[in-house]
Design goal:
The chain has 130 residues and is of the alpha+beta class. It is elongated. It is built from two helices and five strands, in the order ααβββββ. The longest helix is centred in the middle third of the chain and has 24 residues. A hairpin with an 8-residue loop joins strand 1 and strand 2.
Length: 130
């Protein structure tokens, strides 16, 4: 599975360690792995998924993207938050818009904007308004 994640370059993957749920038929199956093994496998999977995601985000640095503004930059705030066409709210990464500029004075939540990607931060992109 880990080799497949790397080869297929799947950058939006997640997993969880199995835990019994009251009334679930799987609770009766023989051979359940110890919690420590489950957690170790989950951590290995997530480390590979994060490495793939980070590498793919790095390749976007220098590009220009259209984003949907979720939190508009305004004077007195550090910046705004937006997302690309591929990002679901509250699930996927965001585009952190750097400190407000003249161009951002009229931006509102729900506006589309063009940004130049200048960096990454974890699972997020960092952009400057154009």
């Amino acid at each position: 599975m880990l080799d497949f994640l790397k080869e297929a370059q799947i950058d939006r993957a997640g997993c969880f360690a199995y835990s019994p749920i009251e009334g679930a038929p799987a609770n009766a199956l023989e051979g359940a792995l110890p919690d420590a093994v489950r957690e170790e496998r989950r951590a290995r999977f997530m480390a590979v998924a994060e490495a793939v995601s980070t590498a793919k985000l790095q390749r976007r640095v220098g590009s220009t993207m259209q984003v949907l503004v979720d939190s508009a930059p305004s004077m007195g705030r550090k910046g705004g938050v937006a997302r690309t066409y591929a990002d679901a709210p509250e699930i996927d990464g965001t585009v952190k818009i750097l400190a407000p500029t003249k161009a951002s004075k009229t931006m509102k939540v729900g506006d589309f904007a063009r940004v130049r990607i200048v960096g990454t931060s974890g699972h997020d992109l960092v952009g400057e308004l154009l």
